[in-house]
Amino acid sequence: MPLGQPFKAALPVGDAVAAPLGRFRIFNVNCFPLGGSTEGQVVTVEWRPVVGFEGRYEVSSDGRVRTVSHELKQSGTGRDYLAVSLGHGRGQGKAMKKVSVHRLVALAFHGPPPTPKHEVNHKDTNKKNNAANNLEWMTKSQNAKHAYANGCRSKPRRRKSHCANGHPLTDETTYVSPRGKRSCRECNRIRDAGRIR
């Protein structure tokens, strides 16, 4: 099966079966359930071209990424998401691009986002579960509400209305440092007056 063609393989759970990987290679796949008991069920894996890298990379419905010759290693992004490095060519001077796996899967299996402001949401809140049926497009606010509802984030703290000494904190009475720290101008004035003496 040539790279770039969608490939569906019905893999009996727990059995080793032959499935094509790349153009002329055969690869033995051990297929196990992703979660829960699926004894006697069949797991279906579909491969589709990676959007923007057609002919070079494919992404599977269970969240794996491969080239013609091998499956790519996924690494963390620092925010618990998985990513892979993709390139347009070989040799020196060919830039590699680190791309989030969940975005590749969503683009391949759900199409482009409805608007540029949409982002990928993990329905089960597990950032490492990049299966196509676990991903959906949402706006940033919908995604945040989903995270709050599932206990992944706490509500943002409200800004203080008064400083520790009881002075009201408004735009006029608040100093914001270059690093973004807020402080009361009245307290700063009193503190600085004590230093001058």
Strand and helix layout:
Layout: E1 7-12, E2 16-21, E3 25-30, E4 42-49, E5 58-60, E6 65-66, E7 75-76, E8 82-87, E9 96-100, H1 101-110, E10 119-122, E11 135-138, H2 140-149, E12 174-176, E13 182-184, H3 185-196
Antiparallel strand pairs: 1-4, 2-3, 4-5, 5-6, 7-8, 8-9, 10-11, 12-13
Write a brief structural summary:
By secondary structure, the protein is an alpha+beta fold. The chain has helices at 101-110, 140-149, 185-196; strands at 7-12, 16-21, 25-30, 42-49, 58-60, 65-66, 75-76, 82-87, 96-100, 119-122, 135-138, 174-176, 182-184.
What does this structure look like?
- This protein is of the alpha+beta class and 197 residues long.
- It has 2 domains: 7-149, Homing Intron 3 (I-Ppo) Encoded Endonuclease, Chain A; 158-197, no CATH class.
- Helices cover 16% and strands 29% of the residues.
- It has 3 helices and 13 strands.
- It has helices at residues 101-110, 140-149, 185-196; strands at 7-12, 16-21, 25-30, 42-49, 58-60, 65-66, 75-76, 82-87, 96-100, 119-122, 135-138, 174-176, 182-184.
- The strands form 5 sheets. A 4-stranded antiparallel beta sheet has the order 1-4-5-6, covered by helices on one side. The protein has a 3-stranded antiparallel beta sheet with strand order 7-8-9.
Strand order of the largest sheet: 1-4-5-6
Strand coverage percent:
25-35%
Mean pLDDT across the residues is: 79
Biggest sheet statistics: 4 strands, antiparallel
What are the secondary-structure elements, in order, as H or E?
EEEEEEEEEHEEHEEH
The parts where pLDDT drops under 50 for at least 5 residues are 11-33
State the secondary-structure class: alpha+beta
Task: Report the end-to-end length measured between terminal Cα atoms.
Answer: 84 Å
Helix-residue proportion: 10-25%
Number of domain modules: 2
- CATH class type of the largest domain: Alpha Beta
The total count of helices amounts to 3
